[in-house]
């Protein structure tokens, strides 16, 4: 199958994204949102699954930068000026490209 990228999320589900390699700057590996560590950030590349519309309504759209503020289940993410709590089962449906691994404490940044 040419033009398809196959990824396995942490929930052991197969995610197929057609023509993903055509997006500029995707030489690095994509990971699911639940795999980011506290303080690290990622840019949303794709949202999969039946709840895609709900994620879009929450602001998880392609190009959005998401930072992990506190890890657990649910995990607390910071994006677009607010905090969002997502369970791992939902966060594994969001694919991101990791953009930084600086450990930033959200409490000291005025949030």
Automatic annotation (TrEMBL):
Residues 31-98 form the Ferrous iron transporter FeoA-like domain. Keywords: Iron. One of its GO terms (molecular function) is transition metal ion binding. InterPro entries: Fe-transptr_FeoA-like, FeoA, FeoA_core_dom, Transcriptional_repressor_C. The keyword Iron applies. SMART domains: FeoA. PANTHER family: FE(2+) TRANSPORT PROTEIN A. This is Ferrous iron transport protein A. It comes from Ammonifex thiophilus.
């Amino acid at each position: 199958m040419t033009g398809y990228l196959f990824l396995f999320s942490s929930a052991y589900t197969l995610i197929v994204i057609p023509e993903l390699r055509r997006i500029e700057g995707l030489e690095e590996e994509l990971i699911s949102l639940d795999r980011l560590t506290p303080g690290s950030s990622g840019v949303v590349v794709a949202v999969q699954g039946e709840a895609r519309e709900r994620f879009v309504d929450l602001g998880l759209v392609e190009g959005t930068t998401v930072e992990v503020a506190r890890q657990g289940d649910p995990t607390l993410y910071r994006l677009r000026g607010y905090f969002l709590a997502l369970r791992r089962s939902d966060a594994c449906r969001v694919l991101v490209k990791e953009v930084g691994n600086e450990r930033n404490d959200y409490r000291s940044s005025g949030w």
